[in-house]
């Protein structure tokens, strides 16, 4: 049994690697920081293949699939991604395009290519690490929210297609709230809400993926918030989100 995890060098991806290994899975880890993945390899008991690759480059996504298509990947975890705080007129366009390439295009390509193989053999799991942000629009974290809307809605649509096909392949969306990872450092902001433990989120996600849950939302407060959103007008949602994100900002924007 083998699992492919992108963004595996830290945070949720790293902790999923440790948990999957405990379950007996061999690992294929993909990220840019080789030394971080070597650390995981040295601390697990199952086989680990390390692939140092930047999935912001579209061509690398196809290369990754070509490299692994004959290795019988049982589970794909699309975890690679990042955010960027700031108002849309101030944030760096090149950085936003990199985010779109990683959060959307890489997820789209890898999901499509590996899903087609899984459908042929009628088995497999795909876990797309989305976000509770995927249920909303996000002033001051605008592009990130938009990318997570894309990955969440894509995952939901594929889930229904697989269901109608009566396929044994399952796809799930992990939609946590704030998690204690490197997200803040990369996005240049600070969460003012309590962050969930990364390993707890990783374990919760994997356990519920195997239960074939569509939406996996670890924190009760986030589940409650998402439920209440259906009763809140969009403009009020935008106002609330704006002030939440404003308090996270470092002040640069």
Give structural notes.
It is a single chain. α3 runs parallel beside α4 (93-121) and α4 runs parallel beside α5. Helix content is 50%, strand content 13%. It is built from nine helices and seven strands. By secondary structure, the protein is α/β, with parallel strands linked by helices. It has helices at residues 11-22, 34-41, 58-68, 93-121, 142-165, 183-187, 198-210, 220-229, 234-248, and strands at residues 2-6, 26-31, 48-52, 75-78, 125-129, 170-174, 215-216.
In short:
The protein is an alpha/beta fold and 253 residues long. Helix content is 50%, strand content 13%. It is globular and about 50 Å long.
Please describe the topology of this protein.
Layout: E1 2-6, H1 11-22, E2 26-31, H2 34-41, E3 48-52, H3 58-68, E4 75-78, H4 93-121, E5 125-129, H5 142-165, E6 170-174, H6 183-187, H7 198-210, E7 215-216, H8 220-229, H9 234-248
Parallel strand pairs: 1-2, 1-4, 2-3, 4-5, 5-6, 6-7
Helix pairs in contact: 1-7, 3-4, 4-5
List keywords for this structure.
7 strands; 253 residues
Residue fraction in strands: 5-15%
Q: Rg, please?
A: 18 Å
Distance between the termini: 46 Å
Q: Could you describe the largest sheet, including whether it forms a barrel?
A: 7 strands, parallel
Shape: globular
User: Strand-and-helix sequence, N→C?
Assistant: EHEHEHEHEHEHHEHH
Give the neighbour order of strands across the main sheet. 3-2-1-4-5-6-7
Structural class: alpha/beta
Q: Helical amount among residues, as a percent range? A: 40-55%
The helix count comes to 9
Mean pLDDT: 92
Number of strands: 7
* Uncertain residue segments: none
């Amino acid at each position: 049994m083998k699992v492919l995890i992108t963004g595996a060098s830290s945070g949720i991806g790293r902790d999923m690697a440790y948990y999957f290994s405990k379950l007996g899975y061999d690992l294929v880890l993909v990220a840019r920081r080789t030394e971080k993945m070597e650390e995981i390899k040295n601390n697990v008991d199952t086989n680990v293949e390390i692939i140092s690759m930047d999935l912001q480059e579209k061509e690398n996504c196809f290369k990754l699939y070509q490299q692994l298509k004959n290795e019988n990947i049982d589970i794909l975890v699309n975890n690679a991604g990042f955010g960027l705080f700031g108002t849309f007129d101030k944030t760096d366009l090149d950085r936003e395009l990199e985010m779109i390439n990683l959060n959307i295009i890489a997820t789209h390509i890898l999901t499509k290519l590996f899903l087609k193989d899984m459908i042929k053999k009628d088995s497999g799991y795909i876990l797309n690490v989305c976000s509770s942000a995927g249920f909303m629009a996000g002033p001051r974290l605008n592009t990130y929210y938009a990318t997570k809307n894309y990955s969440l809605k894509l995952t939901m649509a594929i889930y229904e297609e697989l269901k109608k096909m009566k396929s044994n392949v399952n796809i799930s969306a992990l939609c946590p709230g704030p998690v204690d990872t490197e997200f803040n450092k990369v996005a240049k902001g600070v969460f003012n809400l309590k962050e969930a433990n990364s390993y707890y989120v990783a374990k919760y996600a994997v356990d519920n993926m195997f239960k074939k849950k569509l939406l996996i939302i670890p924190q009760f407060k986030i589940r409650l918030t998402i439920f209440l959103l259906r009763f809140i007008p969009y403009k009020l949602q935008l106002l609330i989100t704006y002030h939440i994100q404003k308090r996270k900002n470092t002040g640069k924007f």
